[in-house]
Design brief:
By secondary structure, this protein is α/β, with parallel strands linked by helices. It has three domains: 4-113, Gyrase A, domain 2; 120-201 and 366-417, Four Helix Bundle (Hemerythrin (Met), subunit A), CATH 1.20.120.430; 212-356, Rossmann fold (3-Layer(aba) Sandwich). The protein is built from 15 helices and 14 strands. It has helices at 30-34, 84-96, 106-113, 119-130, 134-144, 147-172, 183-200, 205-208, 224-232, 275-288, 306-313, 347-356, 372-394, 398-416, 424-429; strands spanning 4-7, 14-22, 45-51, 54-64, 75-82, 100-101, 202-204, 212-217, 250-256, 259-265, 293-298, 317-322, 337-338, 368-370. The strands form three sheets. A six-stranded mixed β-sheet has the order 3-4-5-2-1-6. Strands 9-10-8-11-12-13 form a six-stranded mixed β-sheet, sandwiched between helices. β1 (4-7) and β2 form a beta hairpin. α7 runs antiparallel to α13. The longest helix has 26 residues, at 147-172. The protein is flat, with a radius of gyration of 29 Å.
Length: 436
């Protein structure tokens, strides 16, 4: 395979940036990139990085050889200062020496193809990255550590033993050898029960990865965007005293108390002759229907639009927020939260109020995080086991019983990637971020 590289950190100004390089022959370029120096493997070394002989930056370098790397092939990492100019020059340098930009998930895909991890562990890498709560992290990490695969291989091993006993009876019964007894039925019945119990303890990733959606609405100049920015901790939305500043929907994500939720700032709603602003207002109204929680931000307890927004939200969960309490604390009215976007007063209670709509008691019975494809394959495997059990109890058609056991085992092979249907790898790794 070719030598590939990728920026493993966000392409934004930051303290450091990290590039990953992998592929046979990549270590031959170390002298070109870092000068005529030796770089010991698996030791963080500080070296100058050159572009056509000109110093770009002093960087940290980690070198991994062959089977001791994440991908199972020669690789190295470059830890440089996180300037956009530095990143651009490093990319230019890698291109000049013949390295190719990696596709999404390329490094993890190579780790799978080189037998460093199985397919489920590869999927778990993405699950850990996508984790939106501590519970997600714990469940995903159990699979990444190999516990899930060990459980699947354990079921596969029992199926192999049962199949061997059935096929032995088929092949050698005429020679007076006995491979089957009544215990095989109880063993298979016990396997089916254990498999179903295991599946019942698995949590579908699809049901856990839906983002909690919080939409901010309100009249113009109520401090809606300022509240949005204060909640995020940085200025994501533009703010000004000019009515109608926010015209499009602005999205960002916040993590609080082991939960993540997506925040959407919308245009302030008012009557306007500005066609662009009017479009933003229409977007805001339509976004209310997609929200899990709507936050209405107002700057006066006597605001005449409060009733309008309450009716606009309808049956949706609605948090009425009074902003600018640093200016007026004498009248508070009927609000769920009292805050000051300018000083930050009241925001701890405001965050807790939002989280209260999403917090659920953790399901302590959940053992692993799985995907739709796992559930489908597990159900097919269990169904084949049940068919085999039915046939064995009838005492006929042992060949079909053995075939059903074979089908059951084959489903588990696909789960861990020992067999991969056409297109499966592309579907899985295309969802990865570049650099992983």
């Amino acid at each position: 395979m070719s030598v590939v590289y990728a920026l493993a950190t966000p392409a934004a100004r930051s303290a450091i940036c990290v590039f990953r390089v992998s592929g046979e022959g990549c270590l031959d370029m170390l002298s070109v990139l870092f000068g005529d120096v030796s770089i010991p493997p698996r030791v963080f070394s500080v070296r100058p990085f050159y572009n056509s002989g000109v110093l770009v930056d002093t960087v940290g370098v980690l070198v991994f050889s062959g089977g001791k790397s994440y991908t199972g092939e020669d690789s190295f990492e470059v830890h440089a200062h996180g300037g956009l100019g530095v990143m651009s020059l490093i990319i230019e340098t890698f291109d000049s020496v013949g390295f190719e930009e990696a596709a999404p998930g390329e490094f993890t895909k190579r780790a799978f193809l080189n037998n460093k991890i199985d397919l489920n562990e590869a999927e778990s890498v993405l699950d850990v990255i996508d984790s939106a709560s501590s519970e997600d992290v714990y469940l995903s990490s159990k699979s990444l550590s190999g516990e899930f695969s060990k459980k699947v291989h354990g079921f596969a091993s029992v199926i192999n033993d049962l199949r061997m006993r059935v096929e032995g009876e088929i092949d050698f019964s005429d020679e007076g050898e006995s491979f089957m007894d009544e215990k095989i039925i109880s063993d298979l019945d016990f396997l089916v029960s254990g498999f179903e119990l295991f599946l019942g303890g698995c949590r579908n990733k699809k049901n856990m990865s839906v983002k909690n959606k919080v939409v901010f609405v309100g009249p113009v100049n109520s401090g809606k965007s300022s509240t949005f920015n204060r909640l995020l901790g940085f200025e994501r939305a533009l703010i000004s005293d000019i009515p109608g500043t926010t015209r499009d929907i602005i999205e960002s994500e916040v993590f609080y108390n082991n939960l993540s939720f997506s925040l959407f700032d919308t245009a302030g709603i008012r009557n306007t002759d500005d066609s662009i602003e009017a479009m933003g207002i229409d977007y805001a109204k339509s976004e209310i229907g997609n929200a899990d929680v709507v936050v209405g931000v107002f700057d006066s307890p006597s605001d005449s639009s409060i009733g309008y927004f309450t009716s606009l939200v309808g049956n949706k969960s609605f948090i009425k927020v009074l902003n600018k309490i640093d200016l007026n604390k004498s009248e508070v009215g009927d609000f769920d939260c009292l805050i000051s976007a300018k000083t930050g007063e009241g925001f701890d209670g405001f965050k807790k109020k939002i989280v209260s709509f999403f917090s659920e008691s953790p399901d302590e019975s959940a053992t692993f995080l799985v995907r739709d494809r796992h559930i489908i394959l597990f159900n097919e495997s269990i169904e084949a086991l049940k068919k085999s059990l039915f046939i064995l109890r009838s005492g006929e058609n042992l060949e079909i019983a053995a075939e059903e056991l074979k089908i059951s085992r084959s489903c588990l092979d696909v789960v861990v990637g020992e067999k991969t249907p056409d297109g499966l790898l592309g579907d899985i790794f295309s969802n990865f971020c570049i650099g992983k």
